[in-house]
Write a structure and sequence with these properties.
five-stranded mixed sheet, about 30% strand, single chain, 8 helices, alpha/beta, Aminopeptidase
């Protein structure tokens, strides 16, 4: 016999709601309403109600969400069964959370589970010979443009200017956007968007003003495009080439450094006449 959904106090002020995997066999709305009722009941005398959901169970994730539970993160190996550790997604609702019937509460619910892209800000700094300023890094073998990961709540333009100041002790305000490059998931990293901004043209003496963050940067140098290709990952070389081209042709969108000419042409095509 299938066990009914349950609500259990796990520690002072915290309850956990559980439901069987087949709870939705009689209807998704009914299942969601049942779980939502248990959540509301738990919040009468607890400050927090939580649920652990199997990442493979998409129906259970939808039930948790529409029952008003916000997604908080993945507990790796957080559930032990038959001697094996299994991942679980932590969902929870607090007694102080605004009702999901209110705009603020509904937005908070959506914000808890909608995808979030990592953003990277980089800068294209050139010398009068059109060589590109590149970083030889301590934590990976291939070189890269100066810049770094944008912090939460920070714009990519502000982020790259901050990174250049922190890592190179240079005040180089970011200019116009040259490339927005989407990076697919790779080597343990989730996908991301890299924004490359124009850092302008500077004399080679700029290198003498750099004070490196030595934990991350081994050396800085102006490189020809061939030197960039010889010392970077292929997708980085493509991004640098696209940024150099964009200095004259205007900003572009790339995917792992690849441009899609058919898309670019369609954007430039005249609008059809009525």
């Amino acid at each position: 016999m299938t066990l009914p959904p349950s609500l259990t106090t796990t520690r002072p002020g915290v309850a956990r709601v559980w439901w069987p995997a087949d709870i939705a066999h009689e209807g998704f709305r009914e299942a969601t309403a049942h779980v939502a009722t248990l959540v509301a009941r738990g919040l009468h005398d607890h400050g927090r109600v939580e649920a652990l959901v199997d990442p493979e169970d998409e129906v259970a994730q939808r039930i948790a969400t529409w029952a008003g539970l916000q997604r908080e993160g993945l507990m790796r190996g957080g559930h032990v069964e038959d001697g094996h550790h299994h991942d679980r997604i932590m969902y929870a609702r607090l007694a102080t959370d605004p009702p999901i019937s209110e705009p603020g509460g509904f937005r908070a619910l959506l914000n808890s589970f909608l995808p979030r892209k990592r953003a990277i800000g980089q800068m294209l700094v050139r010398d009068p010979d059109d060589r590109v300023l590149m970083c030889e890094l301590t934590y990976k073998p291939d070189w890269d443009l100066p810049g770094g990961v944008v912090e939460v709540g920070e714009s990519p333009r502000t982020g790259v200017t901050r990174e250049i100041q922190e890592e190179l002790q240079l005040d180089l305000p970011a200019g116009r956007l040259l490339v927005a490059d989407w990076l697919p998931a790779w080597s343990g990293w989730d996908d991301a968007v890299c924004f490359v901004f124009d850092g302008g043209v500077h004399d080679a003496s700029l290198l003498q003003r750099i004070v490196r963050e030595e934990r991350e940067i081994r050396a800085m140098r102006f490189c020809t495009m061939q030197e960039v290709r010889d010392n970077t990952a292929d997708f980085t070389a493509r991004r640098v080439a696209a940024a150099l081209e964009a200095v004259a042709s205007g900003a572009c969108f790339t995917e792992s450094g690849h441009r899609r000419p058919e898309v670019d042409r369609s954007l430039d095509a005249p609008l059809p006449q009525p």
